[in-house]
Amino acid sequence: MFTSLSAAFAYLQDDFKVSQRLTVNLGLRYEFATPQYDRDNHMSNYDPATNSLVLAGNGSIADRALVNPQAHNFGPRLGLAYSLNPKTVIRSGYGISYVLFERQGSDSYLAYNGPFVVNAQITQAPSQGLCPAGSQSLTCFRPTEMGYPDGLTSQANFNTVNTKTVYIPTNIRMPYVQNWHFTLQRELAKSLILDVGYAGNHSTGLWILTDLNQAAFNLPGQNLSVQARRPDQQFGFIDANYSAGFSTYNALQAKIEKRYASGLYLLNSFTPPVRWRPATATATPWT
Predict the structure, then answer these.
(1) H helices within 60-198, ranges in order?
(2) Are strands 165-167 and 74-85 parallel, antiparallel or unpaired?
């Protein structure tokens, strides 16, 4: 596999001296990156509309990556610096950035799909009966000493029932992160500066995973296999990605800096325990 992506960025910024005390920084960043694609188009994606695998092919980025590129990633920037007096300055800022490369191991990697990669998963139980010597069957019980059947991972024997399938919706959105801060900077003495500030960020549309073909629980008295309890019998585990997660970070930050002669200085920073919410699923996929 030789997967890659292409990216392009542009950035504009200007500073405005509104008054002797107030300076405003304005900026706008544009970020673009294609979804991952393979040099030889050895990729596939699950299509829920047809309940089948769609293979990558030559043509547009969407044809090769099987995911539509996102071309409107504009990230504004705003910064403020206000001088309360000769020894005290207030600084604040806000900006938006995009997560242009998303990779959760093999779970968000379409090049990991069959028929080019066969990640065979076999569920068996002793109740199926012991496999006879030399048997290549997958419907009997095979102890470890019998080894794997010949051709288990061969493309000729590829079967979506026995192999994990990665699914990324073609119109999935890339996550973005909002960052902001508010800082008070004070000169305590000659060459001694104290910074105390609040910093936070909020991520939206983080990719989370779910089994699109989740098996139901066995009912009382049932002893069905995992596959027999899946709603779609043509597939096994469908590893689906959705941009429905989010996270939040809030922190108090303090820094004291002492500058000495000959270019020497002492710097000490402190961040207390923070309030942080990990990536969490929302009720519906973010769009």
Answers:
(1) 61-65
(2) unpaired
